[in-house]
Write a structure and sequence with these properties.
The chain is an alpha/beta fold. A hairpin with a 5-residue loop joins β1 and β2 (about 60-75). The longest helix is centred in the last third of the chain and has 26 residues, at about 375-400. It is globular, with a radius of gyration of 21 Å. α1 (about 15-30) runs parallel beside α2 and α5 packs across α12. The protein contains 13 helices and twelve strands. The chain starts with 15 loop residues before the first helix and ends with a helix. Among the domains are: about 45-185, Leucine Dehydrogenase, chain A, domain 1 (Rossmann fold, 3-Layer(aba) Sandwich), CATH 3.40.50.10860; about 200-350, 3-Layer(aba) Sandwich (Rossmann fold). The structure holds nicotinamide-adenine-dinucleotide (NAD). Nicotinamide-adenine-dinucleotide binds near residues 156, 231, 232, 252 and 325.
Length: about 425
């Protein structure tokens, strides 16, 4: 039998996420005025690196994994974006995720471009030693692209502060010098930022609270459903619950649950950390996986993976508004259905930007050896995010465009202006 083809060979690519991004760019183009001649800049990544990641396994064998690091755009600053470990990672997915980072960093006006990385691996099947060797080899392979002024990785799906610590250490070993701000989302004892771990979830909550305010919805008692109960979903659930909202439904890769009175996010997180499945959680009834989308709610937070809400799913959803915790959870066809049904969607590039905003604080304070306490960080996060939210909301109202298009208009103008001012070289 011939060896399996790598996933980046054309016939095996899943190009759906990249096509989604291209469609989003097409939708913003009519609103870009003088900047539209530069828009093709966004339709291709600046550079993409494919690496082979050979790992010595515990049984003595050697396994090979595909790894990627993509810089979508660096007109406004170094590439910034997470690293995903997931069996479905592909080049096209990483390209799309890096492009969404370009839009996000511009929208919230932090001095970064967009990047992303990933390894096609199921980390739940690796021992801790294998995971460390995989991380270190991947980091060594992408070292030509990363650096505090070139490209700064961070956690994403299935990666965490420990993995960032290994990446920082591997980079330091190869450079012969410790530069803590080569990655963000590090453990606090290594220069990590106090509020980084739950920054994305907090940002999702802040955006939901702003939207509720504009729509005249009281968060107290509001019903919230969350897809994905990892870093983003569980973090957001905690903030919703603290504000008096009821988290009535949760879905993750293992199942779905429902509790009309609201479930206790802290207890659920403990249950999951202890290796429990959603369906085994006491204090909520188990739902069929797909029935999650039929639960009636006030706020829906997709916080798992991209492409979850297509036109069919969007037509079933009964909610007042959607806040995208995940990157790219709603397809353009799903967006059209929500628009027709008058259900606002707070787009990922705004709603989940809390993580990159606090990452920027971590990068900047590391570089200047400054220390900010949690209160200062949360205060500044709120300030940056609320300002971005207000500009998006007011453009959405004034131009009668959906929130995603409004966010893209603001971000693309900034990116393309920077691109034009820098000019072409040579
Ligand atoms: P995570 O690995 O901590 O959690 C992912 C969650 O999604 C898990 O609960 C998992 O069970 C669930 N999930 C995975 N596949 C699923 C499926 N097919 N159906 C239902 N649930 C599924 O990841 P995370 O860091 O919370 O990231 C979640 C999303 O948020 C991703 O789209 C990521 O790119 C985005 N995001 C993360 C951050 C961050 O700071 N971690 C920042 C911005 C955006």
């Amino acid at each position: 039998m011939s060896p399996a083809l790598p996933s980046y060979i054309e016939a095996k690519q899943n190009i759906a996420p990249w096509e989604m991004f291209l469609e989003q760019v097409a939708r913003v183009e009519p609103y870009l005025g003088v900047w539209s001649p530069w828009i093709d800049t966004l339709r291709r990544p600046r550079r993409a690196l494919i690496v082979d990641v050979p790992v010595q396994m515990d049984d003595g064998g050697i396994a090979h994994f595909e790894g990627y690091r993509v810089h979508h755009n660096t007109s406004r600053g170094p590439a910034k974006g997470g690293v995903r470990f997931h069996p479905d990672v592909t080049l096209a997915e990483v390209m799309a995720l890096s492009a969404w980072m370009t839009i996000k960093t511009a929208l919230v006006n932090v001095p970064f471009g967009g990047g992303k990385g990933g390894v096609r691996v199921d980390p739940s099947k690796l021992s801790i030693g294998e995971l460390e060797r995989l991380t270190r080899r991947y980091t060594a392979e992408i070292t030509p692209l990363i650096g505090p002024l070139q490209d700064i990785p961070a956690p994403d799906v299935n990666t965490n502060p420990q993995i960032m610590a290994w990446m920082m250490d591997t980079y330091a070993s190869r450079q012969g010098a410790l530069r803590t701000n080569v990655v963000t989302g590090k453990p606090i004892s290594l220069g990590g930022s106090p509020a980084r771990a739950d920054a994305t979830g907090r940002g999702v909550f802040i955006c939901a609270a702003e939207t509720a305010d504009h729509m005249g919805l009281d968060l107290k008692g509001a019903r919230v459903a969350i897809q994905g109960f990892g870093n983003v979903g569980a973090g957001a659930a905690r903030f919703f619950s603290e504000a008096g909202a009821r988290v009535v439904a949760v879905q993750d890769i293992t199942g779905a649950i429902y509790a009309s009175g609201g479930l206790d996010p802290a207890r659920l997180q403990e249950h999951i950390r202890a290796g429990g499945k959603l369906g085994e959680f006491t204090g909520a009834e188990a739902l069929e996986m797909d029935a999650f989308w039929d639960v009636e709610t006030d706020i829906l937070v997709p916080a798992a993976l991209e492409g979850q809400i297509d036109a069919k799913v969007a037509a079933r959803i009964k909610t007042k508004f959607v806040v995208e915790g995940a990157n790219g959870p709603t397809t353009p066809a799903g967006d059209d259905v929500f628009k027709r049904r008058n259900i606002p969607v707070v787009p990922d590039v705004l709603a989940n930007s809390g993580g990159v905003i606090v990452s920027y604080f971590e990068w900047a304070t590391d570089a200047s050896s400054l220390m900010w306490d949690e209160g200062q960080i949360v205060h500044r996060l709120r300030h940056v995010l609320e300002a971005a939210f207000q500009s998006v909301w007011s453009l959405h109202k004034h131009q009668n465009i959906d929130l995603r298009t409004a966010a893209y208009v603001l971000a693309c103008q900034r990116i393309l202006e920077a691109r034009r001012l820098r000019g072409l070289f040579p």
